[in-house]
Amino acid sequence: MTAIGISKPAGLAALAAAAVLALAACSQTPSGQAEASQSASVAATQSTLTASPSPSASPNTSATVGAVVAGFPQQLLPLMTGATVVSSSFDKASAPATAALVGTVTAPTASVLDFYTKALEGQGFKAVPGDKVGGVASKDFVRGDNETVNLSVVEAAGVSTFTIGANVAAESAK
Fold this sequence. Notes:
alpha+beta, 22% helix, 3 helices, eight-stranded antiparallel sheet
């Protein structure tokens, strides 16, 4: 058990689930059009995620459910005011460093997109054209040659569930 009472396999399961969502949100068709699987949008709206731990997960990866994991780069990926953390993960030792956050907030999709667009553009990221993957609101951001952030948002019954994942240089993950 970890200090917060969550077993290591449960934390790795949350990390694996976040990675699956991020990868599903970023898939490309041969024509270059972004396309999301229906399972990714369904999984993003579920309050409980289950997945098997990945055997390739870095031993330096930390993940938690219901809180921001220790060391998470909150300057890079701030939590929107009023949002609740569903899960988070962080691996500063990988190259690039990876961070992911899943949260919910009682705000419209447009407000979530606006908050994170301003936060990321204020740090030098530029939005890539396009704002949807299938029927899911999704924006990609780039900085330099190899730093990327993806944000996807699903709204249901006045609650927006958002997933934000970043692959950045270790020194950017502060």
